Description:
There is one protein chain. With 314 residues, this protein is of the alpha/beta class. It has helices at 13-20, 31-34, 41-55, 76-84, 96-102, 110-120, 137-140, 145-150, 168-177, 209-221, 242-259, 265-277, 281-311; strands at 9-11, 25-29, 59-66, 69-72, 90-91, 106-108, 124-126, 156-159, 182-185, 189-192, 195-201, 204-206, 228-231. It is built from 13 helices and 13 strands.
Amino acid sequence: MSARSGIPIIYSDEVHQALHENAPIVALESNVITHGLPYPDNAATARKVEAAVRVGGAVPATICIENGAIRVGMTDEDIERFAATPGIPKVSSRDMPVVLAQGGMGATTVASSVVAAELAGIPFFSSAGIGGVHRGAQETFDISSDLIQFTRSKVAVVCAGAKMILDLGLTLEYLETQCVPVVSYQSDDFPAFYCRTSGHRAPHRLDDEQIIARAIEAHWALGNHSSFLITTPVREEDAIDSAEVDAAIRKTVAAAGRDGVSGQGITKYLMRAVDAATDGRSAQANMAVLVSCAEVAGRLAVAHARHRAELSGE
């Protein structure tokens, strides 16, 4: 056990060895296990995501909270226990101190995983999609804590953008205002989770993994203590057409107004409508996005570890 910044951190043997050797590691969230598919499909999904990181050449480090400590690198038994235990709470960054103090179990979100990854000394994190600015945020102030945490944690985040139920234009505006770099890997557009394009161009496109590694280090060398966002679209054969999803959302937004649905209730309302409109294909696409992001994150972590070794003269 380590206690960086006074927070107990328990590393798996594999992650501990990888850190000792400066080997590439990709942090993963455990929320996918506890708040995704039902058991045992949730455990199988977590293992597929970890396997994808290994295909990319890096070591996976799924993060959770248990017994007053952050666990970095869940064993197969850990994944099975979290997958089979009902009622484990989703823990965002604001909830971490309370859950750690109480000593209970907690599944990490994007925001809390980024906090934990930086504390653990892991510069890369992968998630299928990040949170963003919600539609109607001008009235509700509903902005995901993921975006706030990106302004505070030095971690490179690999994802497939954010879901189209969010206001992706405002999400990009927020990231620009906060000086969080957004790079689309081998694509011109900012993707929208299982849609290859959101209709918004990415601020930057980079195709070379080594150049991305240099850009990440340059961002931090310039004195920024914030995240570096890299988006990668899902494979074409796994994607859902963005026009199909957008049409379902527009139709549902109008229906929500008639039904009096507003505020935080609108998100779940929209997600159900998209699931229905895609005849369940969105669930399969969810899995594909998780896997493709994890594999790309593994490759980028390898390039980044190689660049750091060159900088240090190893």
